Amino acid sequence: MKPRYAELAEQLIQAIGDGTFEVGSALPSELDLSAQYGVSRATVRSALERVQDLGLISRRKRAGIRVEATKPRVAFDQSLSSVEDLIQFAVVTERHVQSVTEVSASPSLAAQLGVVTGSRWLRTEMLRVDPAKPDTPICWTDVYLEPTLGAGIKRELRKSTGLICEMVEQRFGRVVKEVRQEIRAIGVPARIARQLMTEPDGHALEITRHYVDENGIVFEATVSVFPADRFTYSLQLRRHD
């Protein structure tokens, strides 16, 4: 089940896309949206931040909330500080599963994922796609799950949206305590260049994420390849007193 702010963000995105709220028009105030959708103002505020991040609306004092576009920006700018930010990214993109197979972790794969060599994993190969630009996928992702977890949600993988770790939490109660992340520059691997609609060895970011439960065990890992012209990764650093 998605967080309420994520559901509200989807509803607002759809309403803007189908013309319920036209470009140049004003959205209802936070207070009015809260009453209309039966949620708290904090939920409304979080949803509006997601919609604004996509370039669909602007918010200014005295000017209110104004619709700026009907479709999200082509390039995604992801600012990641929590698991909830990953959920927000999943809200506005689609998962297109290419294959689901069980694999044994080779020494190189085991080192990348931080798991034991020879351990078995269910690998789901998929594309993340912006519905507004289906011909230019945002990224290719290999998702690795413990076999028992993967078997339990295998049928749902091709049908559902959102994050796979959310599906695992709902089905098995394995909660993500932290996400460890590594980013490096690579050339687009030849095996996925055609699916990404780009040239082999083109500039790309590879993001590896390790999903760790409360016992410190990696139960899911993902390796994503983002062509350089379709994705910007931003990170805020703050000084603590």
TrEMBL record:
InterPro entries: Bact_HTH_transcr_reg (IPR050679), Chorismate_lyase_/UTRA_dom_sf (IPR028978), Tscrpt_reg_HTH_GntR (IPR000524), UTRA (IPR011663), WH-like_DNA-bd_sf (IPR036388), WH_DNA-bd_sf (IPR036390). Residues 2-70 form the HTH gntR-type domain. Coiled coil: none annotated. CDD domains: WHTH_GntR. Pfam families: GntR, UTRA. Keywords: DNA-binding, Transcription, Transcription regulation. The keyword DNA-binding applies. This is GntR family transcriptional regulator. It comes from Caballeronia udeis.
